[in-house]
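Good morning,

Attaching, inline, the backbone tokens for the sequence recovery test we're adding to the shared suite. The designed sequence is right after.
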């Protein structure tokens, strides 16, 4: 009996996004042939190749992070990993994309203190910006005191 390696759905890249990236890239390489069809097997090969690349890059970046005696991987770990796995030509464009992303998002960080405060209020049932000044009576409550 042949044993096949099965990739869980959680590890698969979204097929629609892979298809869009492949088609966009191919249309830029060959502008005169704008309606490019890509066979399902080719899309699967692109998807699996990208998944393996992401896995390899993240494992290498994780090793770099651990060598630095840190637990949280950062962008510099990824840049160094790209150089270590011999893809230094990706570092420049990735840095540009990262700075553009930060600029568009106004320097917001997921773990900012303001964001944590909002999350804490939501968890504790404290008032949020939407509910301040609004009162909805509970079932059986007439609103009278």
């Amino acid at each position: 009996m042949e044993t096949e390696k099965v990739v869980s759905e959680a590890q698969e890249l979204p097929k629609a996004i892979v298809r869009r990236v492949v088609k966009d890239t191919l249309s830029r390489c060959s502008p005169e042939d704008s309606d490019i069809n890509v066979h399902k097997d080719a899309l699967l090969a692109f998807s699996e190749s990208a998944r393996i690349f992401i896995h390899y890059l993240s494992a290498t970046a994780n090793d770099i992070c651990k060598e630095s005696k840190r637990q949280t991987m950062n962008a510099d770990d990824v840049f160094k990993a790209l150089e270590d796995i011999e893809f230094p030509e990706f570092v420049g464009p990735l840095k540009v994309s990262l700075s553009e992303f930060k600029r568009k998002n106004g320097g917001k960080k997921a773990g900012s203190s303001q964001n944590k405060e909002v999350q804490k209020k939501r968890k504790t049932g404290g008032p949020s910006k939407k509910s301040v000044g609004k009162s909805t009576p509970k079932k059986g409550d007439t609103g009278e005191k």
